[in-house]
DNA sequence: GTTGAAATTAGTACGAA
DNA sequence: TTCGTACTAATTTCAAC
């Protein structure tokens, strides 16, 4: 975990420097580094690029409703859209969320109305623009849980008190109101 | 752009190998590499970590409605939540979208109902679970636009045909219907 | 899991095209 | 701006412990 913590902040650090920061020997660092890569815990190393400086100043989220039994086609179409940076299948009102980077607002409009709308698998879309990216952490690690808290718990083995079947995937405010009623 | 293309796929490549792949001299590669870093085009290098293998198998999106004039406090609270991987301010129904990685569903529930709900700046939340991350590209580049298309356009200087003030930030299906009516 | 030396590679400087 | 090259510093590998 310590190795991962260092590497997500500085992916180009030398293994020797990594060893020193983690507090192990160089040879050990090489062994563990290679093991993490082979194991797949580290998927790849990448450069974070300033998309604004690269000429893609507009970021948008497109929430997509996918026609049932056309998922395979939807995924195939996604693979052919290089402007898509991220796509996740979600629960809730929509089926998928897509994040795109474009040069300007008009390009987003064109993408959604011309390209996305012509995909048969796409039933409907809802577009939202990103005004500001407040934070992007390289990747969250389990050890982050205790960081930033004033009082750290001794990692109690908290059981899943709320059964999954009882959860409501809705707004928290609404959920709290309902719980209050139920609880009395 | 070529350098960025290589670097986002392999952030740990040596500058010598980078020079060869891009087709420039070693010395030139060092110069440009350093310039890209100094300029801020490359923000940092990072390791992509498999969060499932790291013990954080659940990913969720929390859409947050923020109380007006409490943005500063909201951002301050965010900084103290290490489980948040990404946060963006958006247009549309909600004010912000937060992506979190947690060990299990119960942990997400706890985060939203116990921690988030106790932040005065948070008026309401809506949680959605990510079932599958279809794709995550390191960072999209302008050169990606033409890739993956069967017919590539000669990069015409397309003007912004649709004025921003005329755009409707709503569902595309709805938007198309409206345009049909307007257009006749 | 550690240390230390050999082999290799990376980073720097500078003149020329 | 870019290239080639020579030089110095650092990294990686590999061995014994």
From TrEMBL, chains A, B:
Domain HTH asnC-type residue range list: 1-57
GO biological process: response to amino acid
SMART domains per the UniProt record, alphabetical: HTH_ASNC (SM00344)
Keyword DNA-binding in record: yes
Superkingdom, taxonomy of origin: Bacteria
This protein's name: DNA-binding Lrp family transcriptional regulator
MF terms (GO), sorted A to Z: sequence-specific DNA binding
GO cellular component terms listed in the entry, alphabetical order: cytosol
SUPFAM superfamilies: Dimeric alpha+beta barrel (SSF54909), Winged helix' DNA-binding domain (SSF46785)
Alphabetical keyword list: DNA-binding, Transcription, Transcription regulation
